[in-house]
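Ribonuclease P protein subunit p29 structure dump, as promised
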Amino acid sequence: MDTITKPESAVLMEGLIKPEDFARFKETKGRTTEVLTALKRSKPKKNNKRKQGSKKKLTRREIAKLGIYAIPEDAVKYSACVPLNRLWRGYIARYLGKDTLPDVNDANYGHFVSDILKVDFHGAKISVVRSKNPSLVGAKGIVILDTKGTFKIVSKDDKIRTIPKNDSVFLVHWNDIELTVFGKHLNTRPAERSVKKYKVFGECDLD
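structure tokens r here:
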């Protein structure tokens, strides 16, 4: 009498079934629907929770403590920043689409002022014309770092100076044009300023 062997598929299914479900598998004679139900029940559920200890971004305080944006006093020379200023002048001309200032009575003057406040000042040549700190008045140089609350500039004497925006009024030197900008209107990071909506103010005080 020939020996009846189990189909390979049945043997395979038996190997996939948990011991506690094996009796039920034998009772149903390995019918596919019952096998799939048992497999689905025995399949471990995925844990959708975020893994513990995932990396977090550094806070501003931690960045300051680590000195990531700190610039050593002797690291930057004025002569090395002159090409950067040349690039900035080309950038501002393309950004504004012109190299002249509109008249105050011009219909587009408000739009022009709004555009100026959105400019990235890295590479701009600026000078301080008014400040709550008298020692900063007259400081002039090329911007090497434009942060939320300060400009870091390098002057012709190769010294790096930090100028608080909120307490100062600046002249921006662009070719033969000198443009007055109130620092308190620039108290935002360049990337955030570029998408911010500004109201044009007739005057501004440092208080």
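The chain has a mean pLDDT of 77.
lmk if u need the other ones
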